[in-house]
Amino acid sequence: MSSLSFETILIRTIVIAVIAVTFSSCASPQSPKDTRNVAQKTPADLRPDIQTELTESFGQNCEQFVNSFPTDFSTFTTLYGFDDANNVPRPLYGYYEEHIRYFFSCSKQMDSQKILTRLVTLCSGGKWDADAVELLQTETLAYIESNPAMLLTELSTESNDRSASFWYFLFDGPHPNSPENRENYKIIRGLIEKDKLQSRILTAQYNRLLREGRKDL
């Protein structure tokens, strides 16, 4: 997947750098995590204890962390995204990489079917963005490559619309026809080709992305 424009990346970098310097100057030597970015805004619709649950269980309790991890795309971006309109990082933007990787690392120790149920729910309705969202796409693709049969079992319980939304998100991006995206599509299509319904839905959504070409970017 490609990244955002140079100007947007530059703005994000400057904002994060300023926040990091500010927190570094205020943090005590005994609390190294205090130097990390914590966003200045907490949206009103965010469950107030979720940040605490995620930060306290990170690296300590896989099951608690996975259970606290967002279950829908809106909550995910509210926690880990970046507010481009106001040039403000979301509350856990500074932790997105380590948190997402920890979630998938923990997933290897847990029931794969449960994780796939979570991923389908989380990714459905999603829309590409750089940083946290792009990493979520990458890690989810890698996970389902290792668990294609279980994914198909999960999608068999979902509506066609939910399945379509899931596939659409996984291949969404500024350049749907990029070599990387084409290769990912071929791999996944090959893994699920025996399921005629999901193969058709996947192909339809990928072709839709090619037609749209992310003209909104």
SSE map:
Elements: H1 6-26, H2 50-57, H3 62-68, H4 73-80, E1 82-83, E2 88-89, H5 96-107, H6 112-123, H7 132-146, H8 148-155, H9 160-171, H10 179-192, H11 196-212
Antiparallel strand pairs: 1-2
Helix pairs in contact: 2-3, 3-5, 5-7, 6-8, 9-11
Could you please describe the fold and organization of this structure?
The chain has 217 residues and is mostly helical. It has one domain (6-212). Helix content is 62%, strand content 2%. The chain has 11 helices and 2 strands; from the N terminus they run ααααββααααααα. It has helices at 6-26, 50-57, 62-68, 73-80, 96-107, 112-123, 132-146, 148-155, 160-171, 179-192, 196-212, and strands at 82-83, 88-89. The chain has a two-stranded antiparallel ribbon with strand order 1-2. Strand 1 and strand 2 (88-89) form a beta hairpin. Helix 2 runs antiparallel to helix 3, helix 5 packs parallel to helix 7 and helix 6 crosses helix 8. The two termini are 13 Å apart. The model is unreliable at 15-44 (pLDDT under 50).
Could you give a quick summary of the protein structure above?
The protein is mostly helical.
Mean of all residue-level pLDDT scores: 84
| SS element count, helices | 11
Total strand count, please? 2
What are the secondary-structure elements, in order, as H or E? HHHHEEHHHHHHH
- Main structural class: mainly alpha
How much strand? under 5%
Globally, the shape reads globular
Order of the strands making up the biggest sheet: 1-2
Give the proportion of residues in helices.
Answer: 55-70%
Number of domains: 1
Q: How many whole angstroms does the radius of gyration measure?
A: 18 Å
* Uncertain ranges: 15-44
End-to-end Cα distance, whole Å, is 13 Å
The largest pleated sheet is described as: 2 strands, antiparallel
